[in-house]
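re: that chain from earlier
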Amino acid sequence: MLKKIYFKEVLMLNLKNKIAIVTGCGSVGNGWGNGRAIATTLSRQGAKVIGTDLNINHANNTKNYIVNEGNFCETFELNMVSESEVDLFFQKVINKYSTIDILVNNVGRSEPGDPENMTFETWHEQFNVNIDAAFLCIKHALPIMKKNKYGSIINISSVAGLRYIGKPQVAYSASKAALIQMTKTTAVIHARDNVRLNCVVPGLIHTPLVERLAKKYADGKYEEFVQHRHNQVPMKKMGDAFDVANAVLFLSSNEAKYITGTEIIVDGGLTSVTP
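^ sequence. v structure.
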């Protein structure tokens, strides 16, 4: 005779009272950048969001969205490539909140060029932002997560780290590929500590940043640049910031408790087609 099993109704993707750090939580213009969407989405599921940005006004704009919805957000101005600033930031968070449950490394920078015409300084600046910043945050988050035997770290990479997508951005591509491999390796090392590390890998996402990219890669021809990006995608449209944020939400949640050392690609099928 089969034994009856009773299931208790639970709220999925529940992050109630989880302490979530989201770096690069602002947006470079009006609208929804990835960082703003991620911070807002996590807060809507109950997380207490600690947001950082190089520009405190951008961070506070995100905070206003979150607070106006009745949720929690505290913001900090932070230079992610300054080891001393990052160290002080994490000290403040631990002193105030005692723990860190979720870390989302979202900062990034893309500059055009290949080894022939890119300066060594520009090369290093992109690695500083795209990989060193994540390294510093992971370095500070791991001890408290290991102590608690719980933690989820999500690094925002890019499909440029998987394949060439039509733009000459060799340092960005190389650093985003490095971020994926650092995530995998660290995930294996700390799997026994119940600290999970994964990447979300966005494709072509329509955010306020696209206007800046048009200036760098398309001589400022914004409308043509946007249409070209739409046409590159098999679904014939770019994604939006909440497509990225929802992938981050899943990896942050208990529903993803057995997922580590991998990537969720959010690209409308872009990386599945021949260039």
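The CA atoms of residues 10 and 211 lie 42 Å apart.
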